[in-house]
Amino acid sequence: MFRVTVRRPGKVEREEADTLDAALAVLRARAEAVAAGPAREPIDLRVRRIEPVQQVALRLEVRTPEGRRAGIDVRGDGSAEAWTGRIRRAVVSAEAGEDAYAALRRVLSGSTSVEP
User: Fold this and answer.
1) Contact 40, 8 (CB under 8 A)
2) Which of 1, 15, 61, 102 is the most exposed place for a label (fewest CB within 10 A)?
3) Which H or E element spans position 49?
């Protein structure tokens, strides 16, 4: 059983899926709904400015039956970034022709490089 966790400011939701494809479909639908929305505004602090690309608007995680964790961060400007790991997240580099979702699928569907 694959577990999809959706984290947004002030709210955590969890769903279960029987297959990796189903889990990634849930993840992509949730991420694209937020990414299609309006971009966030920059946050001005006294000492620094946090641009929308630096803000995480939505964090989605897939946990496999083996306990591996990976996911997508949707940034405040609508861009998406794939990652692996639990405590220490490592960004998944997209290969030629891949978007963040395809890179996540590649990593979860057979590679042994995902941290437990």
Assistant:
1) no
2) 1
3) strand 49-50
**pLDDT at residue 96, rounded to an integer:** 86
pTM for the predicted model, two decimal places: 0.82
What are the residue boundaries of the structural domains of the chain, listed by start? 2-28+53-108
Structural contact between residues 24 and 50, judged by C-beta atoms closer than 8 angstroms:
no
7-29 b/e (C-beta count within 10 Å ≥ 16 → b): beeeeeeeeebeeeeebbebbbe
How high is the pLDDT of residue 94? Answer: 84
Rounded to 5 degrees, what angle do the CA atoms 70, 73, 76 make? 180
Enter the DSSP assignment of 76: T
User: Hey, what are 102's tokens?
Assistant: 């395809």
Residue 100, C-beta contacts closer than 8 angstroms, at least 6 positions apart: 72, 80, 81, 82, 92, 94
- Residue 108 backbone phi and psi in degrees, to 5: -80, -20
Q: Would you place residue 92 in the very low, low, confident or very high pLDDT band (cuts 50, 70, 90)?
A: very high
